Amino acid sequence: MAEQAQYEELARQLSAVGAVKRDLARILPASCPAGSAAVLALLDRHGDMRIGQLAELLAVDMSVTSRHVTHLAERGWIERSCDPADKRSRILRLTPAGRAVVDELSRRSSELLAERLSDWTDDEVGQLIGLMTRLRASFGDHRPGPRPVGVRATGPAPPPLEPTTRTPANT
Amino acid sequence: MAEQAQYEELARQLSAVGAVKRDLARILPASCPAGSAAVLALLDRHGDMRIGQLAELLAVDMSVTSRHVTHLAERGWIERSCDPADKRSRILRLTPAGRAVVDELSRRSSELLAERLSDWTDDEVGQLIGLMTRLRASFGDHRPGPRPVGVRATGPAPPPLEPTTRTPANT
DNA sequence: TATTGTTATACTCTATAACTATA
DNA sequence: TATAGTTATAGAGTATAACAATA
Description:
Oligomer: homodimer
Radius of gyration of chain A: 19 Å
Shape of chain A: globular
CATH architecture of the domain at 30-136 in chain A: Orthogonal Bundle
CATH class of the domain at 30-136 in chain A: Mainly Alpha
CATH topology of the domain at 30-136 in chain A: Arc Repressor Mutant, subunit A
Helix content of chain A: 55-70%
Number of strands of chain A: 3
Largest interface: A-B, 92 and 93 residues
Low-confidence stretches of chain A: 143-159, 163-171
Mean pLDDT of chain A: 86
Order of helices and strands of chain A: HHHEHHEEHH
CATH superfamily of the domain at 30-136 in chain A: Winged helix-like DNA-binding domain superfamily/Winged helix DNA-binding domain
Number of helices of chain A: 7
């Protein structure tokens, strides 16, 4: 367990990491925005899968994933074939053209990272990857279902501002 | 220096960290979206400052910062006074009401982080903060100006896709 | 009735460009 | 002429809700 000041600092760093992501996104071609590039990378890494699985891996709503997938399919970078076992589902697969794009984008982003992190050791990069992976896991496990009943962490804590939730939902 | 596979993995983790940020954003009140909350946190941490400095710290365009600031000023959470030394500038300052909001939001996000990272040691959280801070620094130093001429990292590498840049700019 | 995807709609965040007012 | 900030406009990413087809 860490102290409150540390958590606040972590929150600040998380909000600031967006700048790094935007920097990385600038090397993408106009035809393949970041969301689509993420889909390509996951298909390349994990192989063929359904939209739902992809949405799970992206930690994003299926409707969002569907849009990205449509974008890629329109460009011929992925194929949406029907799953014979379940006709509601569609199996996504990288096309050769799609694979070429993934390779090129991977090359570009690796090149940029290599330049920016030229003074990082292999071990340091590995540590950051490991901690970020674990961070995602610590959050991801709680995302979908309503957390284990009766836990509620610290306490009720009546919110002085507003209901509490904030997402396109209650807007 | 690390290997290409490691850079690719880091890129994936960076793109995936958005899910954690969204999770954290869900605890914000509708009246204070993430962008505004970031402004409040920076003013709380660094004290009074000008819009330009804030934009620098946020690593975001000044026009974006200006919007967030307007949002906060309209709610009475910050004050925009004129800088007597330079009448073009405006000094930003948290109001007591603003400080109360910052405190509440910090409390909430710390609470959520404490819950999610309950099995992390103080040291591990510190390591993640340190590495993310360094990551930002490694990128931030290169962002504004055109990098030191004649460096170009790996090589020319003719982009098979499109020009290369991708941002609202060339869209 | 429940699940897989799709589409329509709305909102936040961001950048560029044009503009005002100072320096 | 250059800088600080504002505003208008546009694009990307996301979520919710309503809907289609299939289990």
